[in-house]
Request: fold
Amino acid sequence: MEKCIIVAIADNRAIGKDNALLWHIAEDMKYFRTTTTGAPVVMGYMTFKSIGGRPLPKRDNIVISIFPWPDKPEGVKVAGSLEEAYGIARRDDPDAARLFVMGGGETYRQALPTADKLYITHVHTDIEDADTYFPVIDPAIWEVESTSDEKTDPETGYTFHFVIYRRK
Reply:
């Protein structure tokens, strides 16, 4: 099972503020949904809360939580660590080609050393007051597999493009 990370990042690597996304770009949301549907998704507890505290449809949802969670919603599996989440995904969906780590910041930091691919939406802006950042994508480790044409979001005016990196 290929371990993938999916995230939208600003030019200064900002990804969030106050446990929320920094923008709403409809085409990026569609890309996320299309890319992850049918695959297990792994997220930290705060990311799960930030998406409304309910599982994403048509995906196995695995939430990392170090605290007991007796009232977890139906359709959510709980792991105590990233490695345990990987194990749950392999056990429960052994035929899945890939899984996606979808946040937050600490989960990304833990997942990056073991990831096989990165699905990055590069949003061309700097968010100076962000409080969560994505780690550096080291070109000595990662190479571009594919990139989209640059697009412009009609609502925000932000330009962006989708890039898939693979580990060298």
Summary: The first strand starts at residue 2 and ends at 10. The domain at 2-167 is CATH 3.40.430.10 (Dihydrofolate Reductase, subunit A). The chain has one domain: 2-167. The helical segments are 26-36, 45-50, 82-92, 105-111.
